[in-house]
Write a structure and sequence with these properties.
The chain has about 140 residues and is α+β, with helices and mostly antiparallel strands. It is built from five helices and five strands, in the order αααββαβββα. It has helices spanning about 1-15, 35-45, 60, 95-110, 130-135; strands spanning about 65-70, 80-85, 110-115, 120, 130. A five-stranded antiparallel β-sheet has the order 2-1-3-4-5, with helices on both faces. The longest helix has 14 residues, at about 95-110. The protein is globular.
């Protein structure tokens, strides 16, 4: 009985292997320039409306929270990854960091790295939380 309680304790109270440090290997660290399209796409990512031009839907309708925004090494192509929840605490998928960089690489034909994790720019270890208006004003 004690073994079962001990095992249950470890399952419930020991944190999962998901950690911020396990995704940092995908973060970008070179000099990067975003053109106007890159900035617009990043704003769409922050809003949860990163989609094809001919598809109209709102973030509230899809309940999407931004998870990762990968960008090509030349800053021209970006790829957003979202969680189907309105709460960021529900979105812990470290494999998503790998997936978004691979999809971006496939789409752009260039090496891609994580530019933002949720609403925080992590490129070059900036670790700056941004909202749409903050980003536009700077």
């Amino acid at each position: 009985m004690k073994k079962k309680i001990l095992i249950l304790f470890f399952i419930i109270f020991i944190p999962s292997g998901n950690s911020f440090s396990s995704i940092t290997k995908y973060f970008g660290s070179s000099m990067i320039n975003l053109d106007e399209t890159g900035v617009i796409n990043f704003l769409r990512y922050l809003e949860g409306t990163f989609h094809a031009e001919d598809v109209v839907f709102s973030r509230a309708a899809k309940l999407m929270s931004p998870m990762y925004y990968a960008i090509s090494e030349d800053g021209k192509i970006g790829y957003g990854w979202f969680c189907r929840s309105n709460s960021n605490v529900d979105c812990y998928d470290d494999f998503g960091a790998y997936k978004v960089t691979e999809y971006c690489k496939e789409y752009s034909g260039k090496q891609c790295f994580i530019f933002a994790y949720r609403d925080e720019i992590v490129w070059n270890n900036l670790n700056i939380r941004v909202k749409e208006l903050d980003f536009v004003n700077n």
